[in-house]
Every structure is written in C-alpha cells, then in structure tokens.
From TrEMBL:
Its main location: membrane. The gene is XKR8. Signal peptide: none annotated. This is XK-related protein. It is a multi-pass membrane protein. The chain crosses the membrane at residues 43-68, 161-179, 199-221, 228-247, 259-277, 289-309, 315-337. Keywords: Apoptosis, Cell membrane, Membrane, Transmembrane, Transmembrane helix. Pfam families: XK-related. It comes from the Eukaryota. GO terms for cellular component: plasma membrane.
Amino acid sequence: MPWSPRAALFWDLVLGVLGTLAFLIDVGADLWAASQYVLSGRYLWAALVLALLGLSSVALQLFSWVWLRADLSSPHAPKPPSHCLALLHVLQLGYLYRCVQGLRQGLLVWRQEVPTQFDLAYADFLSLDISMLRLFETFLEMTPQLTLVLAIMLQSGSAEYYQWVSTCTSFVGISWALLDYHRALRTCLPSKPLLGPGASVIYFLWNLLLLWPRVLVVALFSALFPRYVALHFLGLWLVLLFWVWLQGTDFMPDPCSEWLYRATVATILYFSWFNVAEGRTRGRATIHLAFLLNDSLLLVVTWVTQSTWLPSGCLLQRLLPAAGACFLLGLALRLVYYRWLHPSCRWEPDQVDGTWGLHSLEGRQLPQNRRMAHLAKNFFPKGRDEAALPWKGEVNGVL
C-alpha cells in the first residue's frame, strides 16, 4: 500500500487506543473523586457521582447488547456465544469488549500489506458503533459529571486540584467525542472525504465554545437551587423527548429500544444539538438553539437576582461575560464550518438500506452499519448534483 493510506490506518489505530485509555482513565477518575468525597464526609456528592456513572454504564450496555443481538444474524466475524456476550454486558464490560474487538480488527487491517475491502469495511463497521457509544457515554455521564463538579466548585467557593483537572479534561473529552463521531460518520459517505486538519480544528473549537456556556449556566442553577435542578432537567427533557418522538426516529431494531434511543437523544439535546431526522434541518436547528438560549438566559437572570447565595460571586462576574464571548465566537465558527467545510453528496438507495451493502472484489458482501449510515444521511445534506458544494446543502450535524 502507499504510505499515506497505511499511515491513516495507523493513525486510526492510535486514536482507538487513546479513546479506550481515555474511557478507562475517566472511569478511574470518577471512582477516585467519589472516594475523596466519602473520605471528606460529602456523601451526597459521592452518591451523585456514582449514580451518574452507574446509570450511564447501564444505558451503554443496553445499547451495545441490543445492537449485538440485531447483528448476530449477519456473519461478519466470529463472535463469542450469546450467553458470554450477555455475561459481559451484565458485568458492564460490553463497551470494553467492543473497543478490544475494534482494536483487533484495526491491527489486522494495518498489518496487511494490501487489506481486503471486506476487512476495511468491517473495521469501519465496528468503529462506527464504538464512536456512537462513546458519544452516548459523553452526554449521559461525562457532561452531567462536569456540570456537577462545576456546581460543587461554585457552591463551595473553592476547588481541589483534581476538580480542575477533571473540568479541563472533561471539556476536551466532550469536544473530542463529538469530533470523533463526525469523523466516523464521514466513513459512511459514498465518496468518504477525509476531514482535514483545519476543518477538524474548527469543528473541535466551535463545539467546545458553544458547549461551555450551556454547562456553566446549568451548573450555576444547580449551585443556587440544588433541590430544583432535577425538576428543571425533567421538564425540559420531557419537552425534548416529545419533540424527538414527533420527528419519527427509526434508529433501533425494535420499538421498545427505540424509546431508549429517544430518551438518550433528549438528554443530548438538553446540552447540545443532535440531528435525528432527514429533511430540512436548518429550521429545527434554529428552533433548538433559540430554545436553549432562552433557557440559559433565564438561568442567568436567576443567578443575577440570587447571586448573594454563592461565595464565588466575584469569579462569576468574570466568567459570565467570558461565556457570552465564547458563545458568539463558537456560533461564528459553526457558521464558517457549515458554509465552507461541510460536505454535500449524492446518496444512492443501497447506501443506507440493510446491514449488508455493496459487493467486494472478492465477491463477498461488504458489512455496512445501517443505523449509522442512516444517521449520516441525516447529518450530511444531499447535493443537487455530484459536484454539489457544501454551502448548497442544509445546516445539519451535531453541535
């Protein structure tokens, strides 16, 4: 193989290793923080950290198990017996099993001088599910954990060193998960255009800059009214769940698991934008942005009227203007990305139907991740012709 494709395969393998290590480090850091809270007598904080960690882990295992059961009829590669897979997921090891499986396939592809189309397609198939699960874990566990840590820091007026480290790594990890998800979806495109370094930096930055103000205002509300933040989340979450249901999602293999997906998407929409339906999404994205912006402004007004409750008011007087500047800069970078860097493409009917798609040169059907290909069809706009420019499409994607 030429050096550039082989180098790209090696880079993907390195990113897979780093992503797996980051997941393990994040779990270890959460357990360490919970133990520190217990030792300092803050049992409620420790219980909240463990509850978020446990709920997100259970949801992640459910997604992984449902997808594996749906894929068992497709003989992509040898799998452990069904009871072994079930035991792995009961032990909360299903996601790690997928990561190891993806790394093994990536190493197999990289070691081949000329990888077969089937091996390359199967590596993409595995990485797509891993990226989606990582995105779910990010918004079900990492983002709420970050909000909790910021609320604790604001309420106490001080911060331990591990809290600052956790805050910085969480922001970077969340933005990285969104970038990784975007890169993964590009493998579903018929032309598979690579995400260049410049586009990657812009996509990473605008996600970071738009997410930071939302997390900050939610943390402010949590610090001021810790008893009412659950009610605020539940109220908005129900509205967002209803909105997702109205869009008629069809991502999971059965109706029951589809509600798990809709509930997860509603949680993502509480913090960020996530496109789940085909068609004109510019209006939906604008409505969601206006909805979150108005909610955030109401939370800021609440802080202004009740700021004496917090011991760290002086710091907040500097943080809130900085958060507003970050929001405007992130919005500008988002418009730049979708104006010049977001690809359009011509979708073929067989590119999104079925788990198995095109045939390889070896005469074998290539595995295709139907669920992720369907999301990619929603994510990337249809070009008016084969040479459609990015600015001729819709504003789709993940914020």
